[in-house]
């Protein structure tokens, strides 16, 4: 039986390219690393790369294209970033103006594509270690919160860190730290364990992005740096044009999750 | 008794700034991370940062200054990269033209300073684990070799990876991999274990840079990516001006070696 879970990344991207798959990519080509996309004009690229370098927890860079090129040579040398994501969002001067399934006409010689690690990788690692991930169990979006933790500024890019939250059983907290520490290039270890107020979160049941999830008796809220951070920060700079993936509609790389483990 | 080993980084940099210390920095402010310096004009900074991002094993970026600023805010916010290294090398159009103890007159608003992790950090970790480091025992420079492993190109920057070699007792090889894997931001795990020819090294007793060291019976040559790589690659681009630290005359940061351990 045909299953999108077991196809390889090249096949997955071909389906996406032909608009045969325009849904979220969770569960597609299982075991292969998926990535956030940010496309910016060259004029902002150095400052944005610097911002990512200074804030590796929320902004783990997996690949950056040469200016004008749509090929992510490190993570998928036969891919095309203009067509290989199921859905894109176009921001003009910091405002979302459009969603579409390709950006061929927008990509000119000034464009630089950034692929950033996403939490799917460490969530698989958690589940493989017997640690359930609540928003997946509840078929919701992960809850995300603005914090009082400032990112390190780089040129025009600055702002607070955004975190995602997963409730973890008290007995699993240490293992969750160990498991996610293995993957520094996809957000790595938690930013905070326990008290949401300590990092400026007033109401854990009202996330700033995504959906609330159930926190059971005996569970601890654990917070990881979130890939929404660089998008939120870039939007504040109000670039003439910026393109990102639509939430959940990620880029599928040729690399396996385990290849990002440092040990 | 006064000992340079036990002074703190601020004191060490003050001595260096006042030309009271113009020798190599090995053994100064023990336990604090030292870094390689590369200074390039802004025009080349994005491509160089991209090169480092694509080649994190030989080019682990610890900090990058804003263009024109000499302050490495992440690793030593009260330091001055123009005076806080004991000795600098000036390259013009790819040729070494000068060595000096400060670069105040060369630093203009176009200059960007890059600090890259150095092997001192993982060498301390090896020794703390009872694994001797031969070139330190023999008071020599570490042997370094050009390999047949190409770096990933970025703009004008390309070239082979340079590696350093440390002979390790057969029984310690696994532990050496574990110990250095903890420190991905200072070169991390070895690139190669065993046969030098596999990575294009013809004669292990004739390094391309540094000094040869003794390899005893029962020892295995183990190779790590080396921070000389980005300098060698940058020199090939022949920038109008490039400044680096003089070999062994490193920048001393405020951060402790252990803070770079991922687990």
Quickly list its features.
homodimer, 263 residues, alpha+beta, PSTPO5379-like, seven-stranded antiparallel beta sheet, four-stranded antiparallel beta sheet, lyase (chains A, B)
Structure description:
Two copies of one chain form a homodimer. The termini of chain A are far apart. The relative contact order of chain A is 0.24. The first copy, chain A, is built from six helices and eleven strands. With 263 residues, the first copy, chain A, is α+β, with helices and mostly antiparallel strands. Chain A folds into two domains: 4-119 and 230-258, PSTPO5379-like; 120-229, PSTPO5379-like fold, CATH 3.30.2040.10. Chain A is globular and about 55 Å long. In chain A, strands 1, 2, 3, 4, 5, 10 and 11 form a seven-stranded antiparallel β-sheet that branches. Chain A is 20% helix and 26% strand. At the A-B interface, helix 2 and strand 2 of A face helix 2 and strand 2 of B. Chains A, B: Its EC number is 4.2.1.-. Chains A, B: Pfam families: D-Glu_cyclase. Chains A, B: Belongs to the D-glutamate cyclase family. Chains A, B: InterPro entries: D-Glu_cyclase, Putative_hydro-lyase, UPF0317. Chains A, B: It is an enzyme of class 4 (lyase).
